[in-house]
TrEMBL record:
Residues 8-18 have a biased composition (Basic and acidic residues). This is Major facilitator superfamily (MFS) profile domain-containing protein. InterPro entries: MFS, MFS_dom, MFS_trans_sf. The chain crosses the membrane at residues 63-84, 104-122, 134-154, 160-183, 195-215, 227-249, 297-319, 339-357, 364-382, 388-411, 423-445, 457-477. Residues 66-482 form the Major facilitator superfamily (MFS) profile domain.
Length: 502
């Protein structure tokens, strides 16, 4: 096996921009034989299986836990408004003027998503220019300062303005994390890692309601209300996590200084054999225009939006939904967490199936979309007397949504090549997730609370039905493209030996 610090050879069919970038980054690159670059061969050929497992675990422990911490606090900081509002007998509404039938709370909730969507793609340029550690760590640090500021807001307008700034800084993290994970693992290992990353983050963030309720018991200390203490303390936690990110977060494999030369060679060779894109290539506006014309990118974005509409709705409104079911304020704060604990089960099972069983990626997304539809119908449409069944619906809907978020990201990631394309597609998909956030936070109208929010729940069911039908169409199209490629009637992703995983 060849060593480090030599420029990789590329076959004629490779995108020439890879060669240009490889020359510029030759000190960080790995040299490959032509046979090693041929797609479709065993990615572990020539390596000791135990050594591969050891290196993979080393990457797992260095990459995933730090991203989990960062994204968990991201979910907490963007969705903890419901806790702040519910705790201390609605003191939040009284002091900020968001009570009654006005839409001020909805405005505060939704203004986060406009900058979050707009800055998704530009954030990827910053990630490539400054590296993950500096770019993502700084983003977390800056929104931690914003959270501190939210604790001293005197009116709803100030809080809304700070939520806008929060959206700017948080826009960098999720597409950056999705991009990083997709750069480190071959396709057969990607769905499970994405599931662990997302479901663990969601589980951690679910405890925020319990912890936030505890923070709210500082009500009156130092002349501050409980909701103010909650924002301040979460801001401090966020800043501490940012400091950890500056120390421990890693970049793409070609810049992995925590690995030995041999370990880095194993990681990059497996990726080259799997999809030939371990070497970074520049993201340009010309490429963005090209990537924007591919229909599959827009399907994944739509499916992600459909799923996040349900996930955000539950994140923002589950305490209210539980209250409608007859639970008191304390119970509504506590009973949401078990639904996220349950979500680990379908998430891990579906992620494992998607990675290990051929032609099951689309089927897993269809299954979870159906779970969202069924669960949403149960918690909203069943008679009030069937409280246990309605509560079970929250489990089913939460499990389906939190499983499909990483599964959709994974199916998108295994269907493309080139790091520039990963950066673009990650940003596009997560940006549509922000649109789902807008829908999930605005379609649950307060005036419809007694009717269990019919506008919101029927929109969720319709979107996820479209996602399931779209997955069937995507599977049929990918099957057709694979058959043509095997007959020599064209290449998929401009690479011989690359086939869609269905």
């Amino acid at each position: 096996m060849s060593g480090i610090n030599e420029v990789p050879k590329y076959e004629e069919k490779q995108d020439p921009t890879h060669v240009e970038q490889a020359v510029r980054s030759s000190s960080d690159s790995v040299k490959y034989d032509e046979t090693e670059r041929k797609l479709g061969v065993d990615i572990d050929e020539g390596f000791d299986p135990d050594e591969v497992k050891r290196v993979t675990r080393k990457v797992d422990w260095r990459l995933i836990p730090m991203l989990v911490l960062m994204y968990a606090i991201s979910l907490i900081d963007r969705t903890n408004l419901s806790v702040a509002r519910t705790a201390n007998n609605d003191k939040f509404d009284k002091e900020l003027g968001t009570g009654g039938t006005n839409n001020r709370y909805s405005i505060i909730t939704v203004v986060f998503f406009a900058p979050y969507i707009v800055f998704e793609l530009p954030s990827q340029f910053g990630l490539r220019a400054f590296g993950a550690r500096l770019w993502l760590g700084s983003a977390v640090f800056l929104w931690g300062l914003v959270m501190l500021g939210m604790g001293f807001a005197q009116n709803w307008q100030t809080l809304a303005a700070l939520r806008v700034i929060l959206g700017v800084f948080e826009s960098a993290l999720f597409p950056g994390a999705a991009f990083l994970i997709s750069c480190w693992y071959p396709r057969k290992e990607l769905a499970f890692r994405n599931v662990v990353f997302y479901v663990t983050s969601a589980l951690g963030s679910s405890f925020a309601k319990v912890i936030g309720f505890g923070f709210a018991h500082l009500d009156g200390r130092a002349g501050l209300s409980g909701w103010q203490w909650m924002f301040i303390l979460y801001g401090i936690v966020t800043i501490l996590i940012a400091i950890l990110a500056y120390i421990f977060l890693v970049d793409v494999p070609s810049k992995a200084h925590f690995l030995t030369e041999r370990e880095r060679e194993i990681v990059m060779t497996r990726i080259e054999r799997d999809r030939a894109d371990s070497i970074p290539d520049p993201l340009t506006w010309a490429k963005i225009k090209q990537y924007s014309c591919e229909l599959k990118s827009w399907y994944f974005a739509f499916a992600f939006m459909s799923t996040t509409t349900s996930s955000y709705a539950l994140a923002y409104f589950m305490p209210r939904i539980l209250t409608i079911m007859g639970f008191n304020n304390v119970e509504s704060m506590l009973l949401g967490t078990p639904t996220y604990v349950y979500a680990i089960i379908p998430g891990v099972i579906c992620g494992g199936i998607a990675d290990r069983i051929p032609k099951m990626r689309g089927n897993m997304i269809i299954f979870n979309a159906i779970c969202i539809i069924v669960g949403t119908a149960m918690y909203s449409q069943l008679p009030a007397a069937q409280r246990g069944a309605r509560f079970a619906g929250l489990f089913i809907a939460t499990g389906g949504g939190n499983s499909n978020v990483p599964l959709i990201l994974s199916w998108q990631a295994v269907s493309i090549r080139a790091q520039s394309k990963r950066a673009f597609c990650s940003a596009l998909t997560v940006a549509f997730g922000g649109i789902g956030g807008i829908l999930g936070s605005t379609l649950f109208f307060q005036r419809e609370a007694k009717q269990s929010y019919p506008t919101g729940v029927f929109t969720i069911m319709g979107l996820n039905a479209a996602t399931a039908l779209g997955a069937l169409a995507m599977m049929a199209w990918m099957t057709m493209k694979n058959k043509k490629a095997k007959r020599g009637e064209g290449l998929i992703e401009d690479a011989e030996g690359f086939f869609y995983q269905i």
